Amino acid sequence: MSAPEGGTERPLLARVASRAGVSLATVDRVINRRKGVKDRTRVRVLDAARDIGYLSAEDAELYRAVRPLNITVLLPAGTNPYLRLLGERVKERVGQSGVDAPFLRCFFIESFNAAALVEALHKNASWSDGIIFFAIEHPEVRNAAAEITATGTRLVTIVSDLGNSPAVSHLGLDNRAVGRTAGLLIGRLAKATTGSVALVAGSRHYRAHSEREAGFLSLLDEMFPDLRVVGMREGHDDAAENYRHALDLFEKVPDLIGIYNVGGSSGGITRAIREKKQTQLVFIGHGLTPDTRRAMLDGTVDAIFDMDPDILIDRAIRCLSEPAAHPRPLKLDIYFRENLP
Questions:
Q1: Which end of the chain is more exposed for a tag (fewer CB within 10 A), N or C?
Q2: Domain 70-173+309-330 grouped into CATH 3.40.50.2300
Q3: Distance in angstroms (rounded) separating the CA atoms of residues 44 and 17
Q4: Any idea where the domains of the chain sit in the sequence?
Q5: pTM of the entire structure?
Q6: Residue-wise pLDDT tens digits, 49-61
């Protein structure tokens, strides 16, 4: 849509406000498609904008259509390749947004920081009709979610949820089942029936990671009681931390036969496996990305669990657009070297 040159825009907006009998802030909300303006007021502003020539007749009609949703996506920052891929997919859609499509914007915030997530949620709630975000299991985050949903902004968590928060929808995997599947694969693929198995997670503050851990432990206890699970280590989805954890495991756990990376940034672990030639290990991780694909092809990774990022984004947007819908768990994709897409 066309707009006046920057130097003349504000005086014209003031004229639109005067003609429509509203405040300059209201005109700004209408022109920038922000929420909080009644339909009849929005129509009056658009008529005024057309009459004084701020908008062409064609643009005014486009604006007059039902206002698309303003949606913010909040993703954890860091070295997790899957999250970077997810962010790239969202940003591609930002550039493609049209009059009828939701207006998207995406921000990366400090990982595993509840205070930073709370601040970002409140900061974006005034513009957003809906917010898509990774949840951190923390009382302040649950409280912020309750306050924001009470004002009418809809929330959808992806990958990791908030637990008992009925006003917040969730899209992700059945993470307990995911953990059990990982346990089954390691038990079946391991070259020994006894030995130690290690878990590396981003953080237990992600409910998804703690649920995967619980599922993994329950399956091994039921089906492979002779496998010993060493304490889970938190790598904060950081490749360098995961690398150090893997080196420490190789030094301190001589009977290690398998590793399940519950979170992301498997590249640090695969680097350590290659350097120390730990070819006897079964390694299972999450997120089909260029680095995990290479590691599967060279035999360093045995299996990767994945959620298609485009399907995840599509379903999250649809969940905000159709709030009456009850989202079901997403399908888990399991890739081996022989079935890579």
A1: C
A2: yes
A3: 10
A4: 6-64, 70-173+309-330, 175-306
A5: 0.83
A6: 899 888 888 877 7
